[in-house]
């Protein structure tokens, strides 16, 4: 095993990592959510590991798709009106480790962020996605490299 400064456990043999483009398989999500999520995951593995990022066929590989993107009311007020809306995003992730198949996984990860109903999704979406993508990529990174 190889340990990096952030506590991530990476096989010593691993030199490269690839993060495939995560397609948007939802009906609601804006066209940019795939690009934003994929870039955030690529940035995370680039900054948190010393592995070389490849377009495909890395020693370690991430691939998958965005499978759910929805808005639901939360925090109902006494007037039967929601004070907050919740934007949720679910990503299905396949992780492959060429050196240790026991570390491979396929799992759906879901995160959300809330915003006031007095604001529109289009006004809030960029900031909400920043937070959701940060949480999702941390969860995915931790599953792949911190053995939780």
Primary descriptors:
6-stranded mixed sheet, two-stranded antiparallel ribbon, 148 residues, 39% strand, disordered N terminus, 28% helix, 2 helices, alpha/beta, Double Stranded RNA Binding Domain
- Considering DSSP H and I runs of 4 or more, what fraction of the residues is helical? 25-40%
> Overall mean pLDDT score?
90
Helix/strand order, N-terminal first: EEEEHEEEEH
The beta-strand count equals 8
Percent range for β-strand residues? 35-45%
Which consecutive residue ranges, at least 5 long each, have pLDDT under 50?
Answer: 1-5
CATH homologous superfamily assignment = Lipoprotein like domain
Q: Which oligomerization state do the chains in this entry correspond to?
A: single chain
- Which CATH-level-2 architecture? 2-Layer Sandwich
State the CATH topology.
Double Stranded RNA Binding Domain
Shape: elongated
User: Quick one: biggest sheet?
Assistant: 6 strands, mixed
Number of domains: 1
CATH top-level class: Alpha Beta
Task: Determine the N-to-C terminus distance.
Answer: 16 Å
Total helices: the number is 2
Radius of gyration: 17 Å
Indicate the structural class. alpha/beta
What does this structure look like?
This protein is an alpha/beta fold and 148 residues long. It is built from two helices and eight strands. Strands 3, 4, 5, 6, 7 and 8 form a six-stranded mixed beta sheet that branches. A hairpin with a 7-residue loop joins strand 7 and strand 8.
What's the short story on this structure?
By secondary structure, the chain is an alpha/beta fold. The chain contains two helices and eight strands; from the N terminus they run E-E-E-E-H-E-E-E-E-H.
